[in-house]
Amino acid sequence: MAVGQKRAFLRGQAIGAVGGAINTVLFIETGAVAATIPMRNGEAVEAFSMGDEAVTGGWGGQTHGAYRLVTKSDVTGLAVDIRSLAAIIERRSSVRAVLLDYGVRLSVELAQNAVCNLSHRTDERLAKWLLRQHDRMGAAPIQETVVGVAQILGVQRKAARGAFDAFREAGLVETTRGAVTIRDRTGIEARVCECYDASRSVRDIRMAPSPECRQVASGGGRRIGSMA
Fold it and tell me: What DSSP state is assigned to residue 207?
């Protein structure tokens, strides 16, 4: 019996909670998931996002969530029971090596993000965020508001709105209520900071289609239930 089970989620679904028990991990195949941190004022700030280069928490032995995970688009993936995954990691060194390498690369990307936030202009960081979303979702509109992007970038709404206005006037993006569509990726690439290329080491590993993840999908073990 296969360990992995195909799962599909609609945009806006919460698939993990801060402090919530982790019963399964998700090897993301399509779409994007935001890891958010709830604040005292009730808002949730996005710490980072994940696409098909990623697997949600629990693969490293964690038993409770560190972030609130929310789908930023329709998402599909391979869900695996953490006990079954732990057994596979113990048995198959190739799976363990890929997951450990992913953990290292993710840590490097988070450190790069911290440097980026301190060093680069709002428009450069907006370009980086737009390109990352485009990498994961293709030509589909990015479902996010200017206010939401300001929170993600950690800037005032006025600064985010000014950067969007400049991009729109240059014909790089089209904005509608609650959505952004990229019209000129090359133009955005010309404005992005160096951190976009620096973080490619994480994004260039595609977890879900990898041979190691196929091992997880076909391995023996009990079937899993919900993500929670």
Answer: T
